[in-house]
Write a structure and sequence with these properties.
By secondary structure, this protein is of the alpha+beta class. It contains four helices and 26 strands. A hairpin with a 5-residue loop joins strand 10 and strand 11.
Length: 409
Amino acid sequence: MNLLESARKGQTTIEFLLLLSVVVLLILAAITTVTDISKVQQNATQAVRSGVENASLSLLQQFAEQRVGLQLTNVSEVDASLVRLEVAKSDPYFANQPAVMQVMVWNDYSGVMLVPQLRATITGPDGNEITSSPGSEFNVTVTLVRSITVTFVPHQIGNYNVTVTAIDADGQKLKEKKVPFAVVGGGVGGADVVVERKIVEPMNTHFVETIQLPNATIRSATLELADTHEYVFRNVSFYAYDWVFKHSVFIEGSATGVTSFHDTNSPLIAVVPDDAIIYDADLDISSATVWISGRTLIAPPATRNETRSLVHTGANVINVQAQSPTGGCGSNSCNQEVLGTALLQVSYYGPDSNTAKPEKVMNALKVNGLVVPLATSMDISPYLQPGMNTLNFTYIDGTFTYKLHVVTG
């Protein structure tokens, strides 16, 4: 018996076993349709079915390896671009739990196929790639079928995709298949809690956030600090005036006349940045009556507290009216002028334009009274509990946005 006849007999044996497994599966399918089978019997039948399916795949794998091992010289090499790609998955998967799927590479032709590279790429709801193992396999030899188990851990709920790509030796795509799957939060009874808030608070104060979580296990909790800017001090001044001037003019051959002038920059728009926190304001008034934003008339002297209560972030309108000149003009002379002024000085602090480290914008973060080491991204799941939770940002010295993502189940 020559080598080729031995291979044919081996192939006939494998095909017989495959046919036998199919028959067994059909018999089991018929058995499970009987309505009086008990629950225990159904579980046993399912176990046998799974065993037969696994055995069938193992036979296919063994058959492929045996054919390669024979190294038959008369078996042609199949073009790798003819490969067929399939994905076996069991979604929905659960967030923050290990997940497994199988990539199967099929050779539907008589001969040996060599795929230089097989790549599995998993992308999440945001379009970013999720790390998987293995991400690629090289020099994949396929005679009938080759199965590769891919493991990964999804961290977000939503719709995912796995893309399987066969690549040639030059890095060019031969064949590609994209398969969607779903990831849900936390398993049975799970929930997904997301909070995002921008914090702008006075310096050296505390901000306490209360979070109500479901009565379930905390599977994961990530807290991110973004857009962090340290407070810096600044001063700004605004000068408004109103000038009234009268004087006599002697014109030869005629009587003396009176000429009047009026010069002012009132109303003046005084703009304080919207993101500023005002801590002091002073208004110096001379020979004038002043209105700020049309709300209150201020006659000198104006107290700092009074001024501070009137000035706000954004646009402040300053109106100045010079006090009327006293007395009248004589028949031969008239020289009267009044300059009314208002000098507004505002001291405030606001976020710097540069991004700062988290420890620069607050003293500490406490979750349920426990101090959490500050970082841009923190795992706070060990500090949380089902039900009521408190997040305390202490001694704030800047603005920031916090993003909290909790998965329970």
